[in-house]
Amino acid sequence: MIRELADYERAPQEAKATEEQLREALFGAHPAVFALIAEETGGAGEPGGPVGFALWFRNFSTWTGTHGVYLEDLYVTPRARGGGHGKALLAELARICVERGYARFEWSVLDWNEPAIGFYAALGAEPMDEWTVRRLSGEPLRELAAQAMGTAVTSDSLSEATSLSN
């Protein structure tokens, strides 16, 4: 389904995660991400197999002082769309937020994905027009990281950071 999502988002070359990487991220000693799976019901109430997923992780708001949920990916197979699976996945993530006292549930949507934008708007999700996502990857990421090589955080810089936050 990850590859299907990458195809839908017009970026199949970007889907490089291996099964081992996903297994470690989801089920390793220190899970970094979490997933919900939507399944269709088969005959006699038996599961009919996976038809969608939501991959998410916790974020943190310094303004609210609480964690939140960031939805990295939401995907429902084309044949199962319209069956309520996407809404059920989002509702479960909203339930997790409320139950755990998280203040925010956020995600990004491609600006050309009109069906998703309409779906999210119908749920009451507000666009964050004043925010623009920025990303460092590849060579620019390595170049910036190289600027930190060999530098250490000193107690002076920690004291300065601590005083700024007070």
From TrEMBL:
Entry protein name: GNAT family N-acetyltransferase
Record keywords, A-Z: Acyltransferase, Transferase
PANTHER family in the cross-refs: DIAMINE N-ACETYLTRANSFERASE, GH14572P-RELATED
Coiled-coil regions listed in the entry: none
Pfam families: Acetyltransf_1
N-acetyltransferase domain sequence ranges: 1-146
Gene3D superfamilies to which the protein is assigned, alphabetical: 3.40.630.30
